[in-house]
Amino acid sequence: MAETLRFGIVGCGVIGLVHAEAIASLPDAQLISVVDINPQQAQKLASQYGARPYTNLQHMLDSEPVEVVIICTPSGLHGELACQVMRSGRHVIVEKPMEITREAIEEMLQVQQATGVKLAVISQHRFDQASLQVHDLIEEKAFGRLVLGNAIVPWWRSQQYYDSGDWRGTWKLDGGGVLMNQTIHSIDLLQWLMGPVKSVFGYTDTLVHRMETEDVAVAVLRFADGALGTIAATTGAYPGVTTRIEIFGDKGSAVIENDRLSFLHLVRDDKQSISSYGVAPQEGKQHEDTGSTSQNPAALSASSHALQIADMIRAIREDGTPLVDGYEARQPVEIILSIYESARIQKEITLS
Ligand SMILES: NC(=O)c1ccc[n+]([C@@H]2O[C@H](COP(=O)([O-])OP(=O)(O)OC[C@H]3O[C@@H](n4cnc5c(N)ncnc54)[C@H](O)[C@@H]3O)[C@@H](O)[C@H]2O)c1
To answer: Residue 50: CB partners within 8 Å, gap ≥ 6?
Structure first.
């Protein structure tokens, strides 16, 4: 296999640019072509990164020796385009969400199996140092019996944001609102850390924006191992507040704020036993961020994306499995679709 893998990007909008930056930061990856139905968008990204522009994916696949294609289009197009790429024998990385319906996800998994190419789905926060550290500690059972896991996403998106693309906030192409678009990262982390979700009950509403889908949602969760959890999310919280993932067990607790481990306290590290009332939060270990990009989400985004693209390169070279393959990426979408169903029929939904 060539030392440098050749990449293509489909969809040259906000996140297409982040992928181009991420590829450029990797020594063994090269962006050679980009596709966008909007010729100006394709031309702009292509000239910035020395790639060839296309307005049609099939033309690009027929003409370019790409080995990996990254799908960065509106979410409801991910399946169709990813299947086209896989059927051409190329590996594919798909932006989150993997797709917005169970049927489309099923087809992607079937095409991946039939073609034998690699399929990875972006969930870049799994590659943050804080997430990896907490995941390792959970594997070591350092938190003891997990009892509660929360994901809190009080974000702000202006009406202008929803109006900036006709697919945003629609059922057909965004597949949902704050849960499917923004909170999927935190839902994926929560279920990766706490284990599979068994059942959900949710409420959703649209309180601030002119859009079809929800801009506020809450859900209660029961995890397969018996622990409980909550999700609270909105894009109507001006000016936008830190994302929190909270993991609580009877031998330790951790809080991740944005990409940073802001609290970690494990019984195994205690030099003396603590009182029956525990410790006040400020006495817990507050971990300072070690990354230089913590105040700059855009920069962090490209670096976490680069780690995930590097993981795909590893999987291709070793003929292994990417950390977030199609089966992994299906989980958060399944949780979100179940919350939507619960909110619609006002009943608890058990996940299959
Ligand atoms: N991982 C993350 O943190 C993250 C962040 C932002 C967006 N995303 C995901 O990335 C995807 C794109 O989001 P965005 O904000 O970049 O959207 P965007 O609207 O800025 O860009 C989408 C681009 O796709 C192009 N496009 C549409 N249909 C196409 C087709 N059939 N073929 C080729 N190009 C096509 C559009 O012209 C546009 O330039 C979404 O699925 C979104 O959920 C992920």
So the answer is: 31
